[in-house]
Each structure stands twice: as C-alpha cells, then as structure tokens.
Amino acid sequence: MTLEDQLVEALGAAHVVTDPEVTASYETDWTGRFRGSARCVVRPGDAGQVAAVVRLCGDAGVPICVQGGNTGLVGASVPVDGAVLLSTARMSSLAAVDEVSAQVTVGAGATLSAVQAHVRPTGLDVGVDFAARDSCTVGGMVATNAGGERVLRYGTMRAQLLGVEAVLADGTIVSRLGGLPKDNTGYDVVSLLAGSEGTLGVLTRLRLRLVPLLAGRAVALVAVNDTGAAVALVRMLRDRLPSLEAAEIFYAEGLALVRSQSALPAPFDQEHPAYVLVECAQRVDPTDELLEALEAAGAVRDATVASDSRGRHALWAYRESHTEAINAVGVPVKLDVAVPLPALAEVVAALPDAITAVEPRARTILFGHVNEGNLHVNVLNAVDRGEQVSDAVLRLVASYGGSISAEHGVGRAKREWLSLSRSAEEIAMMRAIKRALDPRGLLNPGVLLPED
Ligand code: FAD
Ligand code: MLT
Ligand code: ZN
To answer: Which residues of 358-367 are buried (b: 16+ CB within 10 A; e: fewer)?
Structure first.
C-alpha cells in the first residue's frame, strides 16, 4: 500500500487531497516569495487522526509541514518538496467559555475571528489581535508566538497560552489543558511549543487565557515629524494613560501606497512625515483622557480622534492595510525586526541607505508597533536580491542589539541569520531539544534552525 492509501484508510478519502489544482493553494506562502510542492494534503479532524498521520509518515520517512491559515510571513508554512502537508483546518472546535476562570479551549485550526466571535458575548476577549484575524489560526498564532497590536497591554501569544494538546513526532499525544494559572511542576512544556514553528509537534488544541472585553474605545491618528517624535509621544501616553492598548507607526510613503491601492481619503489636509496610531480601551469612554493627553503632548503636527466603531475602524484601515497594499504592488522581502526603543529612530534613519547599498532599485516601506521597537521592513523591487537585502538589514539590526524576528518567527526566510540573535550555546540547546523530540527531523525541516 502506498502512503496515500494508508492515509486514506486513516482519514477517509475526502481528507487526503492529491489533486494538484487543490494542493496548489497550500504550496505558496502569503507573500508569494516561498514555494514548495506537497506530496498530498491531509486534513485530520482530531489529535488521534494527527497521531495516525504522523506515525504513517514516520514509518515512510516522509516529512510533514503543518499549515494553519497560511498567513505566516517567513515561509514556514509551505512544504519542503515531497512533504505531506498537514492542514489543521478541520480542527476548529470551540469549547464553552469557562467564564469563572476567564479561559477557553479551542481547536488549533479555529481562526482568530471565530474565537473572538465565540468569546465576546461572554464579556471576554482574546488578548492578541491583528489584521490577519479572519484567516490566521490559533495554532499558527501559538506556533509563531504572534504579537500584533495589543502586545503593549497583554503581551504576545505565549502570554495567552495556559495549555496545549499536541502530537509529537513519534505520534505521542501530550495533553495539558487544565489551565491552572499557577503550576510550577518542572519544565514548561506548554511554553516550549509556543514559537516552535511546527518543528517540535503538531498543536491540536489550545487553552487560552481571556481578557476583559472593553467597550469604551478611542483611536487617535497623530501626525508627527519623525520616529523620534513618535517614540517620545508613545512614552508620554504610556506613562499617562493606563488604558493605552495600541501604539503603531507608519510613514508618508506607506500611507501613499495604501491610498494608491484603496479608496481611503487623506486623513489630514496636508501630508506629514510620520503617523502614530494609538488606541485606548477601558470600560467607560476614554476619549476625554486621550484628548487631554494629546493636548499636553508636544510635537503633534495634527491629530484626529474617533470614538464610534465606524470612525475607529476607518483610522485603523490606514495602518492595517499596509500588508495587503505592499503585496498588491509586488513580492516583497519582508523583515520583521525589533530594536531597543532608544535606538529605533537611528535604525529607521540608517535602513534606507543600508538597503539601497545592496539594491539601488529598492523601495522600502516601514511600519510597525512602536512600543516594542518592532519595525516591519518591507522591501519592494528587491526579491532577486532577497538574501543580500536580508543580510544588510539583519546585520544592521543586530549591531544595535536588536532581534532578527520580533513576532513573525524565523521560518525559512531568516534561519541562516539565527546566530545574529542567538548565541552558539543557545542554538546548540535548541538543536538538542529538536533532536530529543524529533530525532529524524520529520517536522517542518528547513524551518527555524540553520543547516547543521
Ligand atoms: P501558518 O501561516 O499556517 O503557519 C505559520 C507557522 O506555524 C508555520 O511554521 C506552521 O508550520 C506553524 N503552524 C501552524 N499551525 C500549527 C499547528 N497547529 N501546530 C504546529 N505548528 C503550526 N503576525 C504577528 O505576529 N503580528 C501581526 O500583527 C501580524 N499581522 C499580519 C497581518 C497580515 C495581513 C498577515 C497576512 C499576516 C500577519 N501576521 C502577523 C503573520 C501571521 O498572520 C501570523 O504569524 C499568524 O500567527 C500565522 O497563523 P496561521 O494560522 O496563518 O499560520
Ligand atoms: C502587521 O503588523 O501588520 C504585520 O505584522 C504584518 C506585516 O508585517 O506585514
Ligand atoms: Zn506586526
């Protein structure tokens, strides 16, 4: 019997796809930069079926690539050639919200927006949010330790994670979904799987901590002179406003690109060099305190504030539309980095020259999450020189004590630069963990760890 026949026996014919017209949609990443070809796509319905797939692939010596919503931006969700692509789409269960503990257990294949819609009627919310919410899955968010727009207040996905059910490379099912917030009984196996990018196990269910759903919201779009002014503004708002939930940055060139790809009107009468978008959230309307804080802030060139849902979404659209607008004009080299906040302005100033030195035709669009010093460096017209551009940007970032990946992960895109952010000892420790849990390297080969 072929591997495909065995997989059909385990999952049913409807859940083993070999038709190239269908498998094609799983084989290219969201940016269009990374491709692979899968031997077949399997869609198991629960941990037991995942374990069966993992065992069969192990017996056949065939690697597995786990894919959730395929919105990842570092090429980690596309298969190495000949791998079995394991889609988590069918594992989208939503258990009843545990309102007493403010927790919920969900299937790894549930999308973020499905979980949001499930928990919000109980007055609770998910602490992590970002623009891919309708497609990205909770499993993918945990596997990449996703960050997004609310890290300032609630931390990254790892901080929301209280438990996992996962299938290891030998087919063992590990289940730890109790959700005790205090539980110091040895190595943190739950946390280890966060950020593991599909290389240590297949996440099948997750236990998430929930946060209060805050209905009082106000968003301000503030025009400023430059990155330094943006950092100073965010510092001041952060110190003054406990309700501050998001602080994002983008620049004139990004706004122009977004507007060229959409029908969004200009936010102000005139153009400005840089823009900070902030959101405050609490139980009662925070508009007055946000306005007062903005009035007290120096260096504000212009500002507009929205408190109603429509107005807030309209302001967020300027920021959240960046990713799609960039993709619409070409395949970008995307480098998600973080630098210490005091160095952010200097790095932003140095980046364009560092990039054009290796690719003079490059068009660089920057935006990001200010408070974490998290910059999204998007380089257009440079995909043929992707390695050189990555090298220049990541070395610059590392020279300022930054990280080569703030929130998207390492994936295939950055694994060769891992040593810029992790010491030889740390990489050796990671390799030892990988060898212990996946000695044959069957789970997502080519992702995260550099070539040995
Ligand atoms: P995929 O892309 O399918 O997979 C990503 C990685 O996770 C791969 O390594 C894959 O093997 C692994 N994986 C997926 N599911 C599992 C599982 N069940 N078990 C084990 N491994 C698994 N990211 C941020 O951090 N912050 C942002 O603000 C943000 N904004 C975005 C906006 C847009 C428009 C887009 C397209 C992407 C954005 N991202 C952002 C990146 C991306 O959405 C996140 O990384 C997301 O967490 C990936 O989820 P996914 O289900 O699409 O995972
Ligand atoms: C975002 O913050 O919008 C993202 O992380 C997506 C991107 O970098 O394009
Ligand atoms: Zn981001």
So the answer is: bbeebbbbbb
